[in-house]
Design brief:
The chain is an alpha/beta fold. It has helices at 16-29, 41-50, 69-77, 92-101, 113-124, 148-152, 156-166, 171-178, 182-196, 201-209, and strands at 7-12, 32-38, 55-59, 82-87, 105-108, 130-131. It contains ten helices and six strands. A six-stranded parallel sheet has the order 2-1-3-4-5-6, with helices on both faces. Helix 7 crosses helix 10. It is elongated and about 55 Å long. 39% of the residues are buried.
Length: 219
């Protein structure tokens, strides 16, 4: 798909302010036609069933169901449509989940419109999966990730802890960065090792990054 002017867009977000801002921004480019706006998962599903769309721009967690439901509904009702997820969270686990669910881009709502629009246009034109550069590095290593089933056993928070472990952070620093207690970090680390079948922290990181465990320092 390269003719942006014919691109039919569905905007999905619980905030009317967000969807109206996006509608105006896309309208000013003269490249897109917004054919639907939805503020709940149910509204989005009705739009997808009743209106032809080429692009869905959706929040990560739309009111009315679990995270990424609209991404999955798009795959069901409009499999040829491309999906761009907008989020407030620079979370590697959220970005990974969005791409695994079928989105072609995970972008941050805090980005200036001048930066967002070219990325959305690139997604429509068929660019490779895109993750905002400010999202943690772990999410930007798809070719070196273990099979999705392995990571799928981790909760979103466990994935975030694993991402910090991959950066070489000890428990105290992880607790500080994620605004949780040291004991909570320890609990998450134990769960990560158990679910991944890893011997220790270094082994868990090596499983994710595909490196020798000697390249990491245990804490």
């Amino acid at each position: 798909m390269t003719d942006l002017a014919s691109t039919r867009v569905l905007l999905v977000d619980g905030s009317q302010l967000i969807t109206e801002g996006l509608r105006l921004s896309l309208h000013r480019t003269h490249c897109f036609r917004v054919v639907g706006i939805a503020h709940t998962v149910a509204d989005a599903a009705r739009c997808l069933r009743g209106v032809l769309v080429d692009l869905v721009v959706t929040d990560f967690d739309v009111p009315g169901a679990g995270p990424l439901r609209t991404v999955r509904d798009t795959a069901q009702y409009r499999p040829s449509a491309r999906v761009v997820v907008l989020s407030n969270a620079d979370s590697p686990s959220w970005a990974r989940a969005a791409l695994d669910a079928g989105a072609v881009a995970y972008l941050l709502k805090t980005s200036p419109v001048a930066e967002l629009l070219p990325l959305i246009m690139a997604a429509v034109r068929g660019a490779p999966a895109t993750i905002d550069a400010r999202v943690g590095s772990l999410a930007r290593l798809p070719s070196r990730m273990p099979p999705p089933a392995s990571l799928g056993r981790l909760s979103a928070r466990e994935f975030d802890v694993l991402a910090e472990m991959a950066k070489g952070m000890d428990n105290a620093r992880i607790a500080q960065r994620l605004f949780i207690s040291n004991d909570t970090v320890k609990t998450h680390v134990k769960a990560i090792l158990r679910k991944l079948g890893a011997r220790d922290r270094a082994h868990a990181v090596a499983m994710v990054l595909g490196e020798s465990s000697e390249a990491f320092v245990t804490t």
